[in-house]
Fold this sequence. Notes:
alpha/beta; binds shikimate-3-phosphate; 3-phosphoshikimate 1-carboxyvinyltransferase activity; EPSP_synthase; binds phosphoenolpyruvate; 4-stranded mixed beta sheet; 12 helices; single chain; amino-acid biosynthesis; globular; UDP-n-acetylglucosamine1-carboxyvinyl-transferase, Chain; EC 2.5.1.19; Enolpyruvate_Tfrase_sf
Amino acid sequence: MGKPDLKARSPWAALTDVNRVDITPLHEQSVQTTMTVPGSKSFTNRALIIAALADGTSELSGILRSDDSYWCIDALRKLGVPIEVNGDTVKVEGKGGQWPEKNAGLYIGAAGTIARFLPGALACAAGGTYKVEASKRMSERPVQPLMEALESLGAHIHYEQSEGYYPLTIDANGLTGGEVTISGKVSSQFISGLLIAGPYAKEELRINIPDYIVQHAYVKITLDLMNQFGVETVYNDDLTDMRVPVSKYKGKNMALEADASTASYFFALAAITNGRIRINNLSMDTNQPDIYMADIYEKMGCRVIRGEDYIEVEGVEQLQGGFTISMKEMSDQTLTLAAIAPFADGPITITDVEHIRHHESDRIKAICTELSKMGIQVEEFQDGLKVHPGTPKGTTLQSYDDHRVAMALSLIGTKVPGVSIDDPGCVSKTCPTFYELLEKTGVSVRFA
Ligand SMILES: O=C(O)C1=C[C@@H](OP(=O)(O)O)[C@@H](O)[C@H](O)C1
Ligand SMILES: C=C(OP(=O)(O)O)C(=O)O
């Protein structure tokens, strides 16, 4: 296990000095809570970049305060965009598609959203030289298909170390527009990155996807947000053909959605502890794909109430397994499902998620290793895994500097004694308050 990349932890991180968290199971009492979860990472970083590109000022409320959004704000400020932060509200003074700072060095931490959304936004400006550095892991994650697409639209990109990877330098000299073909098999974020820059190209941008898009809902989130900021795109149902007109975003005040991915850990907690959790700042009325974990908890025997402005999950005595499921469309939740799978009454097989081997860690390998350490029988496939029922044995687990590994494994600690997780601070990538929220549900956590 490599050391965590602490440089990527921002001033909004928590627990950076903490080596380990010990989690105590709930025993007799079950979780019965109503709560709210922080803002969506996906909405926050899209809205920040679009607001910075816009004409006029935007006030965004309900932003996520985490490493990923901190580094996004930091990069935009270094580009000369005035951003005022007040709690979870930000005011962004848009610069109309040009960056006031013509020469800047940017650091984007471990954020896939910035790594894939910012390059197009930089390249579409009329001038400027921008060196962009990322965390160690983000510098190993793929970006080449996006960079090649941008180069085909006239962008000048220079790799500082390895061809196709961060760090890299972008010499902004505008994007031509016209037709571009890009695969959606590795990351939907490449496509969102092209779309966000699209209105500032010299001609209409037409994006063709020759295969399919992993997690296409995130592309829909991008298209909808562009529309809300005043840019009307045209696209077909499966999002394989999209057109972006030459246009400009208009500044807008907006309340951002809460994070459905974060919510899912708490629904999972209710599911495995036969408890009940209501989250009252989320509903099914969202494009965030992870909201459909509600359907999976239901399939496993939980009771789900889909309210107009809340979602509630109530667990059962015995969760049901014995199914195979493609998690392609909500692959961030692969780890959550894998972590609760041992508590089901039959094996659960997860397929179609090979791309998560390129996320914050090789997530398939990480979860198989850690579940095996606890004595759970797991079969690892190139594109997924099969988890058999069993009682995990408590031990010290690794988080692989991956927020979702830490959050998913923490769930197991609420059920069985002796679970400790190294470097729990990695949750700050998307949810620095995760352990605080967990404690509020009644789970006891101790930091060492
Ligand atoms: O666009 C987004 O906000 C995201 C897209 C997805 O990435 P990939 O399409 O790269 O899997 C998802 O995993 C990530 O957490 C957020
Ligand atoms: C894959 C993830 O993040 P990123 O935005 O860095 O791709 C994630 O949050 O699970």
